[in-house]
Each structure stands twice: as structure tokens, then as C-alpha cells.
């Protein structure tokens, strides 16, 4: 009678979870029994929703990737369920099947677990958002904004972030404190919205104000890049409001901020706070907010059988997909080493974050940011033109075609091509 294989459970099958599961299977082969749990049987390609919305398309028709078949092909077990509890000492996870309301709680044992559930986007903590707010973070909200734009009366537009509450317990000295969860989207959406206004003969950038709770919008991109962006935005006519502290209320005529400032706005697009799932809060593996504490190998210091990748991890600041991709490879190798499929020399580099971002700015053009200056590095690249737009489209196609498993040469090739691209 054979020895049972180590059981690996990956919680989440969106960007970080799907990629981690695929890398685990690649590196560990058939040495593990791999189970993936997600409340949805699909992945929503959130980064490109705004492109579909501003083109007048339904993102639910083009931005969903069916994931169960990918896991079946890899020999994984996919469970369509919501994670409701985790017991680190008992090494068990509680789940509730999510395909039918009223399902009973079930329990899963694990030898290793990867927490890749992302976070809650706390729109429910912004007064008035349900009636007056907009976003491009899901198919539902994308289509809601499409309807809002169809009825647009020509008034002011405000785009920006609510305050992000980062955990400070266990935060390493090298990791800065971010006041916004991710501010690439406001930059991208602001530029693309200005083009949408112009192409529909409804105005231009003068109708749009960008706002941030921080001293500087998109601070994680680095001061040099943001200064260049703000100079360009000012020339185009964008309004800019910083140090708002937080969003307190949305109403029909605009936005009110904790700083005491306010903006008139017909359309109010807000990036909310990123909040950990409630079952993680107050666990011994998380910080005071509920983000999972890890070392640079993405393993929890007190429970090394628990790993975290993507937005659920405390080290993921800002909440950016490219950081989750880097972490997925690291975590997968750690598990493969633990089960004897790889040697310790195969661990690869530790986690060293850098900002890698492609943005759509309308008119088949985009921007490219590659920077690590926020973390103390020296890389600072900001390019605009048609090539970044093409790369943004190409990444989505590649991600879908590979089933969430980009080739190993993808990121290095991107740096090689785009860092030396002359711009336009």
C-alpha cells in the first residue's frame, strides 16, 4: 500500500491562485494531491475591463476565463466553494459550496495551504457608493458605468482612491506604507476617459479631476515618474486634488473627503479600501488588519506550511497583479522543495517587489511603468505610445491562451523590450 501524497490546498483561483496552482503542478509534478478552492468557476480579467467599458462592450462577454477545465487538465481537484474558516493548528479549512444557497459547511485537511483569496473591495464602507459611485473592478460595476456613461449629461468627473489601511504589525523596514491600494487604475482611467470625452465630443481632460489620499498619486511608481505624469496631466487640463485623507460620502452632486475638501462630480469613480476576508482577521498568521504575514519566500514565519500570495499577503503593497505573479513562482518552488520534487538550490530568487504596469490611455495608445524606487531601487522607466497598448492587449490574450501560466521568459522579455523602447 503506497504512502499518501502530501495534500496541497490553494485557496483562490484568480490571478495569484491560478498561477500558483499551475506552477505547483509544474514544479512538484505528481508528488502532490492538489486541491483548488474558489467561489467562482471563472477568473475575471479585471485589468482590461475599462477598455471594454469605454468601447461600449459588455466585459462579461470577453473578460471571463473558465478555470475548472484548466485545473482538471493539470490533474487538480477544483472545488466551487467559499472559504469561511481556517485553523492553522489543526491544518484544516472550512468551506461552503457556493453554487447553491443553503449548502452545508465542509472541512478540508491540508499539509500545505496557499492563501490566494485576494481581498474584499470595501465599497460597502463608502457612504452613498451604491447609488452614486462607479468602478471598473467587476463585470457588474463595468456595466453599471456603461449605463452611467450612456446617460452622461456633460458634468464633472472625479476619479481616485479611498484610503487603504495597510497592516503595520510585522511590516519589514524595507516595505513602505501605502495610503492607496493601487493607483495605476486612476491614472489609466483618467487618461482613457479624457480620450472618450474627446471622441464623443463631450469635452476633454478639463472635466476630470484625479484625487488621492496621499501626498502624491500613484506614489509607488516613484517620485520621478509621478512628477512627469502630473506635468503632462496639468498640460492636458486635468484637475488634481491630493491629501484627501479618505472618502467620507458620495452624493448626487459630488464627493466629500475626510480632509474637509469636496469635489463636484456627476460621475464618481472610486478605488476603495482593500480589506482582508473576515475569517483571516485575528488569526495568529495575520497582522492587525488580517493580511497574511510571510517572509520573502512567501511562507508564514510561525506556520511555514502556510503560504500567501497576491493581495492576501501583507508584503503585497501596492495590490498589483505583477507582484502576485512573482510570488506565485516563489511559493510554488517552496512547496516543490518541501515535497522533494526540487532541491534547495532550485528555490530561485527571494521576493523583491517592483512595479510593472501597462495602462490604456485611449486612441490605441498606452503607458508602461517599470519602477522599484519606492522600495529603494534605482529602476525608473515611464513610456507612452502604441507599443504599451499592444502589450496590454497581448498579455490578456497570452494569459487566456496559456490558462494563467505565462512563460518564464515573459517578464524578462517585457523588460528587455519595453525598457529600451524609445516611446512616442
Can you tell me about this structure?
The chain has 424 residues and is of the alpha/beta class. It has three domains: 7-119 and 276-346, FAD/NAD(P)-binding domain (3-Layer(bba) Sandwich), CATH 3.50.50; 121-273, FAD/NAD(P)-binding domain; 354-424, no CATH class. 29% of the residues lie in helices and 24% in strands. The chain is built from eleven helices and 22 strands. The chain has helices at residues 15-28, 49-54, 59-62, 68-74, 129-132, 139-150, 184-199, 223-236, 321-338, 386-401, 410-419; strands at 7-11, 33-38, 42-44, 64-66, 77-87, 92-97, 106-109, 112-115, 120-121, 133-134, 157-161, 208-211, 239-241, 247-251, 254-257, 262-264, 267-271, 274-275, 306-308, 355-362, 365-371, 380-385.
List the topology elements.
Blueprint: E1 7-11, H1 15-28, E2 33-38, E3 42-44, H2 49-54, H3 59-62, E4 64-66, H4 68-74, E5 77-87, E6 92-97, E7 106-109, E8 112-115, E9 120-121, H5 129-132, E10 133-134, H6 139-150, E11 157-161, H7 184-199, E12 208-211, H8 223-236, E13 239-241, E14 247-251, E15 254-257, E16 262-264, E17 267-271, E18 274-275, E19 306-308, H9 321-338, E20 355-362, E21 365-371, E22 380-385, H10 386-401, H11 410-419
Parallel strand pairs: 1-2, 1-8, 2-5, 8-19, 10-17, 11-12, 11-17, 12-13
Antiparallel strand pairs: 3-4, 5-6, 6-7, 9-18, 14-15, 15-16, 20-21, 21-22
Helix pairs in contact: 1-9
Q: What does the average pLDDT come to?
A: 96
CATH fold call of the largest domain: FAD/NAD(P)-binding domain
Give a count of the beta strands, DSSP E runs of length 2 or more: 22
Count of separate structural domains: 3
Which CATH first-tier class of the largest domain would you pick? Alpha Beta
Radius of gyration: 21 Å
Strand order of the largest sheet: 7-6-5-2-1-8-19
Amino acid at each position: 500500500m503506497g504512502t499518501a501524497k502530501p495534500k496541497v490546498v490553494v485557496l483562490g483561483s484568480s490571478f495569484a491562485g491560478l498561477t500558483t496552482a499551475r506552477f505547483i503542478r509544474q514544479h512538484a509534478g505528481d508528488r502532490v494531491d492538489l486541491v483548488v478552492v474558489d467561489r467562482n468557476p471563472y477568473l475575471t480579467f479585471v485589468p482590461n475591463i475599462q477598455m471594454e467599458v469605454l468601447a461600449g462592450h459588455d466585459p462579461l462577454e470577453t473578460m471571463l476565463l473558465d478555470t475548472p477545465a484548466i485545473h482538471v487538465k493539470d490533474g487538480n481537484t477544483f472545488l466551487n466553494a467559499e472559504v469561511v474558516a481556517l485553523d492553522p493548528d489543526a491544518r484544516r479549512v472550512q468551506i461552503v459550496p457556493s453554487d447553491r444557497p443553503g449548502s452545508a459547511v465542509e472541512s478540508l485537511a491540508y499539509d500545505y495551504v496557499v492563501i490566494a483569496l485576494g481581498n474584499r473591495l470595501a465599497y460597502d464602507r463608502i457612504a452613498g457608493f451604491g447609488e452614486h459611485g462607479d468602478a471598473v473592478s467587476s463585470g457588474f460595476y463595468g456595466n453599471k458605468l456603461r449605463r452611467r456613461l450612456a446617460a452622461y449629461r456633460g458634468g464633472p468627473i472625479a476619479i481616485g482612491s479611498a484610503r487603504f489601511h495597510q497592516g503595520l504589525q510585522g511590516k519589514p523596514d524595507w516595505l513602505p506604507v501605502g495610503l492607496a491600494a493601487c493607483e495605476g487604475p486612476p491614472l489609466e482611467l483618467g487618461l482613457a476617459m479624457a480620450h472618450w470625452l474627446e471622441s464623443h465630443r463631450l469635452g476633454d481632460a478639463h472635466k476630470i479631476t484625479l484625487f488621492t489620499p496621499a501626498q502624491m498619486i500613484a506614489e509607488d511608481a516613484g517620485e520621478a515618474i509621478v512628477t512627469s505624469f502630473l506635468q503632462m496631466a496639468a498640460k492636458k487640463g486635468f484637475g488634481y486634488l491630493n491629501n484627501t485623507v479618505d472618502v467620507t460620502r458620495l452624493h448626487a452632486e459630488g464627493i466629500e473627503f475626510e480632509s474637509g475638501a469636496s469635489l463636484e462630480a456627476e460621475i464618481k469613480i472610486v478605488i476603495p479600501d482593500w480589506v482582508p476576508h473576515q475569517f483571516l482577521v485575528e488569526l495568529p498568521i495575520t497582522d492587525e488588519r488580517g493580511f497574511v504575514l510571510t517572509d520573502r519566500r512567501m511562507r508564514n514565519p510561525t506556520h511555514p506550511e502556510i503560504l500567501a500570495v497576491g493581495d492576501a499577503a501583507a508584503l503585497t503593497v501596492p495590490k498589483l497583479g505583477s507582484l502576485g505573479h512573482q510570488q506565485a513562482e516563489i511559493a510554488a518552488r517552496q512547496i516543490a522543495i518541501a515535497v522533494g520534487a526540487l532541491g534547495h538550490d532550485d528555490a530561485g530568487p527571494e521576493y523583491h517587489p517592483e512595479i510593472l504596469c501597462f495602462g490604456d490611455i485611449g486612441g490605441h495608445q498606452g503607458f508602461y511603468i517599470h519602477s522599484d524606487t519606492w522600495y529603494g531601487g534605482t529602476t525608473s522607466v515611464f513610456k507612452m505610445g502604441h507599443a504599451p497598448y499592444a502589450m496590454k492587449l497581448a498579455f490578456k490574450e497570452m494569459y487566456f491562451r496559456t490558462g494563467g501560466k505565462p512563460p518564464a521568459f515573459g517578464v524578462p522579455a517585457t523588460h528587455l523590450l519595453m525598457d529600451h523602447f524609445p516611446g512616442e
